[in-house]
Amino acid sequence: MDIELTYDMVGTRLRGIGGAEITYDRLGNRPRTLGSWTLEYDRLGTRLRAVGAAEITYSRWASLPRTVGQWSCEHSKLASRLLCIGPHELRYDHLSSRARAVGPIEIVYDRLGTRPKRVGLPGESESLSDDLLLALFLVLYWQEERAAAARRE
Question: For a 10 Å CB count at each end of the chain, is N or C smaller?
Answer without folding.
Answer: C
